[in-house]
């Protein structure tokens, strides 16, 4: 049996009376793309800081690449690539210099760092911006440069904390493509996100985190099968009417969730569910049939929306 690249048991982090991470267990295999899905404040970033060996745990065990994070921080960090929520780039330096200067922090040979930096310019699709100052780059370019910088030491594990927050849809898809390429090269990816489409796109397996605890674990498709239906009917009846109408919709589908702006009806066949709504004499001002997503899984498990 090959040991997991990252392994946690009863992992806990407290800040005074606040329990940020509450006794969680998980294993991450080599070459896997593993996600922590949850809202802001769920404990995702705190967990990532402990994996990165930049924050010590309060109790439990946590090993990365076979080493204890509390006692082997420098050795672990030397083999990790880290992409924080903020880019933390040197805005006044040129693109190429951001890579070279960062590479020297790892005490790597200058010749290797320069060669590696040139390779990463191509990987990040920033060749034409090689000598541009960072403060003139778009948000997507800055994010790609941050990922390239995290790869300068050729890490075995890449930690990405909310990698596409603030990016437009096109920039997000370009970034996803770069991450897919890393995975194809055998790099282990650990991703935190509160975007369900990102988790579905990037993660082989994930855990759903809420209030510092893991409430579900599996592949995106297996979680959707376990906790939701094939389709979801969204119906809107206007401001202030959704919750009032919801009681009349009981039994239309397998399950119903009444939110402030819409009612969600979970069913195997969303169009059939919509016809049943119309047969009841109800006339929604808007309706939409879609496939179930991880957003629905989170709503089922926690009783609240992923993004509030």
Automatic annotation (TrEMBL):
InterPro entries: AAA+_ATPase, ABC_transporter-like_ATP-bd, ABC_transporter-like_CS, ABC_transporter_ATP-binding, Glyco_hydro_18_chit_AS, P-loop_NTPase. It is found in: Cell membrane. One of its GO terms (molecular function) is ATP hydrolysis activity. Its main location: membrane. It comes from the Bacteria. Keywords: Antibiotic resistance, ATP-binding, Cell membrane, Membrane, Nucleotide-binding, Translocase, Transport. PROSITE patterns: ABC_TRANSPORTER_1, ABC_TRANSPORTER_2, GH18_1. The keyword Transport applies. This is Lipooligosaccharide transport system ATP-binding protein. It comes from Tessaracoccus bendigoensis DSM 12906.
């Amino acid at each position: 049996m090959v040991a997991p690249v990252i392994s946690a048991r009863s992992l806990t982090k407290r800040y005074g009376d606040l329990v940020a991470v509450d006794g969680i267990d998980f294993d991450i295999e080599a070459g896997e793309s593993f996600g922590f899905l949850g809202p802001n404040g769920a404990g995702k970033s705190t967990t990532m800081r402990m994996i990165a060996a930049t924050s010590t745990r309060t109790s439990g065990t946590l090993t990365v690449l076979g080493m204890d994070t509390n006692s082997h921080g420098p050795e672990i960090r030397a083999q990790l690539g880290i992409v924080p929520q903020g880019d933390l780039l040197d805005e006044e330096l040129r693109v190429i210099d951001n890579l070279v200067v960062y590479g020297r922090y790892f005490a790597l040979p200058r010749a290797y760092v320069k060669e590696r930096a040139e390779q990463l310019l191509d990987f990040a699709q920033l060749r034409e911006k090689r000598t541009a100052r960072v403060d003139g780059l778009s948000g997507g370019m800055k994010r790609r440069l941050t990922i390239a910088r995290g790869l300068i030491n050729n890490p075995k594990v890449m930690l990405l904390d909310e990698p596409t927050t603030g990016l437009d849809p096109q920039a997000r898809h370009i970034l996803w493509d770069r991450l897919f390429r890393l995975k194809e090269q055998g790099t282990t990816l650990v991703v935190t996100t509160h975007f369900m489409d990102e988790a579905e796109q990037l993660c082989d397996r994930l855990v759903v985190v809420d209030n510092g605890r893991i409430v579900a674990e599996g592949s995106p498709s297996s979680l959707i099968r376990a906790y939701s239906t094939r389709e979801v009917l969204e119906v809107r009846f206007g401001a202030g009417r959704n919750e009032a109408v919801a009681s009349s919709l009981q039994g239309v589908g397998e399950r119903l969730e009444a939110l402030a702006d819409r009612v969600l009806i979970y069913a195997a066949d969303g169009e059939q569910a919509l016809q049943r709504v119309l047969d009841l004499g109800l006339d929604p001002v808007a309706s939409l049939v879609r496939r179930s997503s991880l957003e629905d899984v989170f709503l089922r498990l926690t009783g609240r929306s992923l993004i509030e």
